[in-house]
Amino acid sequence: MSTSHYVVLRAGTRPSSETEIKRSRFLGYAARTPSEDDARDFLAELRREHREARHICHAFVIEPDRSIQRSSDDAEPAGTAGVPILKAITARQTAPGRAELSDITVAVVRYFGGIKLGVGGLVQAYSNAAASVLDVADVIDRQRMRLIELALPIGEAARTETR
């Protein structure tokens, strides 16, 4: 897909979802984050809101060409949380022929319910939680544009505008 078209969350929205698996609660959140600083701010806000949570695992994809991709398992076993969340973002089909999802952070807050899920169970739980929040996300198409400034005689302006 061309990097000139991409899809982002609608400004001002913060989709969320909740699932329960073996008494553990998985709360999914997504935010529009056009920079790594925005992603860190969003995660800090979630940590303040969910001080008692055992884990806040996340992934983000930034830039229209998706050149910045990061994930964190936040002390869950390696590869069981952040990577499945990242895969949910990068595999997301917004609609046939539409651009790819970018400038987004998805975080899954886990409140441990006392029953261990195992590696496969964790991967499935975090994948499903990320997919659930993306299912309710309101997205819009964006197109990367380039601003061009021209300095030319006034008589040439009309001819330039019509091309």
Q: Based on the structure given, which CATH architecture is correct?
A: 2-Layer Sandwich
Estimated share of beta-strand residues? 25-35%
Fourth-tier CATH superfamily name: Impact, N-terminal domain
Distance between the termini: 27 Å
The percent range for helix content is 25-40%
Largest sheet: 5 strands, antiparallel
Q: Can you describe what's shown?
A:
The chain is α+β, with helices and mostly antiparallel strands and 163 residues long. It has one domain (5-161): Ribosomal Protein S5, domain 2. The protein is built from 4 helices and 8 strands. The strands form 2 sheets. Strands 2-3-7-4-5 form a 5-stranded antiparallel β-sheet, with helices on both faces. Helix 2 (82-90) runs parallel beside helix 3. It is elongated. The two termini are 27 Å apart.
